[in-house]
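It is worth pausing here to work through a concrete case rather than discussing structure prediction in the abstract. The textbook approach is simple: state the sequence, then state the predicted structure, then interpret. We follow exactly that order.
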Amino acid sequence: MSDAPTDRLARTLSRAAQALGRHGVLLLTLAAGLVPALLLALVAGGVYEAVTEEDGVAALDHPVLALAKELRSPVLDTSVTWLTNLGGTIGLPLLAAGAVAVLCRWQRSWTPLLLTAAAAAGSLLMTVAGKALVGRSRPPLSDAVPPYEYSASFPSGHSLNSLVITGTIAYLLFTYLDSKQTRIITVLVAAVFIVAVGLSRVYLGHHWLTDVLVAWSLGLAWLAILMTVHQLLHARRIRSLPAS
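Step two, the predicted structure:
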């Protein structure tokens, strides 16, 4: 696919390299990913501080849970439970494995597998470390929809993992697809799924709102780093591209 977004980016970098030098382009690419990652990490730190001090955005946790309880109904509870299971420890790996298999076969490359595996490993590590570090209790079982969960609440693993893995697959699709409309649809579908899974955790009373917010912040930061590394590795092909 000679006109894929990644190839067009490489050509743009090739032209920029003539003006800035190869190392200058790599530094700009690195900054473009690491600066957002740093800012998002600071946001996550702010949410963590609000949780530990029980102020700031953490003041929304109880009102949002109360609103979720008012919206519940047997049919909606069942539907949201099915949705949240898609972003859980069984549904998400199955969906990701199917998508990665298709991408690897389509592109005749192991890149989708390696990048998605790295994304999943990092997000799982952040989930485990965050829960062990903070040890926050989930909302009371009396406020939750069964089946109940008993692990630590902060951050939301469903929210973090679904953002990182879905975001990685959406990013790969974005680089492989030629149609602008299809790329936009891909990003929108991924965003809707990520937001829906995160909000489902609050609706079901399995997490506080701040558990989800910090998960999204950490997930976006990790995703920015992954995308940056991928682009840096891809930029190494610049010298082999024909001049335009």
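Step three, interpretation. The two ends are 17 Å apart (CA to CA). The mean pLDDT is 81.
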